[in-house]
From TrEMBL:
<dbReference type="Pfam" id="PF00487">
    <property type="entry name" value="FA_desaturase"/>
</dbReference>
<dbReference type="InterPro" id="IPR021863">
    <property type="entry name" value="FAS_N"/>
</dbReference>
<keyword id="KW-0560">Oxidoreductase</keyword>
<dbReference type="Pfam" id="PF11960">
    <property type="entry name" value="DUF3474"/>
</dbReference>
<dbReference type="InterPro" id="IPR012171">
    <property type="entry name" value="Fatty_acid_desaturase"/>
</dbReference>
<dbReference type="GO" id="GO:0016020">
    <property type="term" value="C:membrane"/>
</dbReference>
<comment type="similarity">
    <text>Belongs to the fatty acid desaturase type 1 family.</text>
</comment>
<feature type="domain" description="Fatty acid desaturase N-terminal">
    <location>
        <begin position="58"/>
        <end position="106"/>
    </location>
</feature>
<comment type="pathway">
    <text>Lipid metabolism.</text>
</comment>
<keyword id="KW-0812">Transmembrane</keyword>
<protein>
    <submittedName>
        <fullName>Uncharacterized protein</fullName>
    </submittedName>
</protein>
<feature type="domain" description="Fatty acid desaturase">
    <location>
        <begin position="113"/>
        <end position="368"/>
    </location>
</feature>
<dbReference type="InterPro" id="IPR005804">
    <property type="entry name" value="FA_desaturase_dom"/>
</dbReference>
<dbReference type="GO" id="GO:0016717">
    <property type="term" value="F:oxidoreductase activity, acting on paired donors, with oxidation of a pair of donors resulting in the reduction of molecular oxygen to two molecules of water"/>
</dbReference>
<feature type="transmembrane region" description="Helical">
    <location>
        <begin position="117"/>
        <end position="135"/>
    </location>
</feature>
<dbReference type="GO" id="GO:0006629">
    <property type="term" value="P:lipid metabolic process"/>
</dbReference>
<keyword id="KW-0472">Membrane</keyword>
Length: 418
């Protein structure tokens, strides 16, 4: 699901800001909070230490409390070169991933062994996910400063894995602009208790019981989440503004072209071969996408706040995201696990996210949670996901700072069915 150019102010209203093609324009920052107005040198360092000490002070820490720092302070702590986009470097990652995808497919087709196919499905599905992350960078404008290059590469990468580039780009923009807001967030947002209670048992079961949430993305593209309507393929959907219709038609046409290509290959190669070469890896990719996006916005170990009304701000919403460690997968999927800084400043290229995160940690203090180290493979994250799905069911209908609550009756029903 042309990206965000953040102002350096905090407290943005939860509006669905719109812009034409290219990066998203946010309101201009107040002069008093602009990076240029911040103290430099020893004074800035002293202020950063003070923020870090206050955020890391002993006693109970309330993650829903307004942070003692602003976006401008976080931005000032990040080295300037971290904002530089190198299109040649970005394209090198595309070339690397495409070569690996084609090589895996050729090797699996040649060997054609049931000892090889499961390994191929896991590897190729992960590479599809890596392609998605690069297309996602195109949508944010962090791939390069050239909107045409971003659009062409983004359409090719996303269409190849059946994602409508512009449709998803725009809805993902809405997610970034409103993350942490109960009503206005776009993906994996909490359900208010009244809406949750209106769902039938089967809908709840599909939404909160493994492995069904790992297959949610295609349905989301066509129907969105409960409580929201619209399609990522329909230019008249309320997801989009009238001036974005041409973009949606373009991405939907590209998606249909890929469907046609897959149909032609199925006719030539046979349905079983295409099932093995493409369909199963596609499902693995969908599982990766749903798992990663869920884990970055839910933390059952430390409950994350969600906001309404005046309590919400762009900064406070962004701080409710989580970094996750994926072991060997970190490099393969382009360090998307470094999610907090990505959410606050999505224009930073993925190859600078780790450095930017390390630089920002002293400012963020306890508002940043170190990810649990996973070892070579992130197997523990399946347990985290499963436990979160058992606990994070709905939020209160009232209140401006709310936390996920548990539907104990649903968990009891699940245990009885087991």
């Amino acid at each position: 699901m042309a990206r965000l150019v953040l102002s350096e102010c905090c407290g943005l209203a939860p509006l669905r800001l719109r812009a034409g093609r290219g990066a998203i324009a946010a309101p201009a920052p107040p002069a008093a909070l602009s990076a240029a107005a911040l103290p430099r040198g020893p004074a800035a360092a002293a202020i950063h230490r003070d923020w870090a000490l206050r955020a890391a002070a002993g006693g109970d820490f309330d993650p829903g409390a307004p942070p003692p720092f602003g976006l401008a302070e976080i931005r000032a702590a990040i080295p300037k070169h971290c904002w530089v986009k190198d299109p040649w470097r970005s394209m090198s990652y595309v070339l690397r991933d495409v070569v690996v995808v084609l090589g895996l497919a050729a090797a699996a087709a040649r060997l054609d062994s049931w000892l090889v196919w499961p390994l191929y499905w896991a590897a190729q599905g992960t590479m599809f996910w890596a392609l998605f992350v690069l297309g996602h960078d195109c949508g944010h404008g962090s791939f390069s400063n050239n909107p045409k290059l971003n659009s062409v590469v983004g359409h090719i990468l996303h269409s190849s894995i059946l994602v409508p580039y512009n449709g998803w780009r725009i809805s993902h923009r809405t997610h970034h602009q409103n993350h942490g807001h109960v009503e206005n967030d776009e993906s994996w947002h909490p359900l208010p208790e009244r809406l949750y209670n209106s769902l039938d048992f089967m809908t709840k079961k599909l939404r909160f019981t493994m492995p069904f949430p790992l297959l949610a993305f295609p349905l989301y593209l066509f129907k969105r989440s409960p409580g929201k309507t619209g399609s990522h393929f329909n230019p008249s959907s309320d997801l989009f503004q009238p001036n974005e219709k041409k973009d949606i038609i373009t991405s939907t046409a590209s998606w249909l072209a890929m469907v046609g290509l897959l149909a032609g290959l199925t006719f030539v190669m046979g349905p079983i071969q295409m099932l093995k070469l493409y369909a199963v890896p596609y499902l693995v990719f969908v599982a990766w996408l749903d798992m990663v996006t869920y884990l970055h916005h839910h933390g059952h170990e430390d409950k994350l706040p969600w906001y309404r009304g005046k309590e919400w701000s762009y900064l406070r919403g962004g701080l409710t995201t989580l970094d996750r460690d994926y072991g060997l997968i970190n490099n393969i999927h382009h360090d998307i696990g470094t999610h907090v800084i990505h959410h606050l400043f999505p224009q930073i290229p993925h190859y600078h996210l780790i450095e930017a995160t390390e630089a920002a940690k002293p400012v963020l203090g306890k508002y940043y949670k170190e990810p649990k180290k996973s070892g070579p493979l992130p197997l523990h994250l399946f347990g985290v996901l499963s436990e979160s799905l058992k606990q994070d069911h709905y939020v209160s209908d009232t209140g401006d700072v709310v936390y996920y609550q548990i539907d104990k009756m649903m968990n009891t029903s699940a245990q009885n069915s087991d």
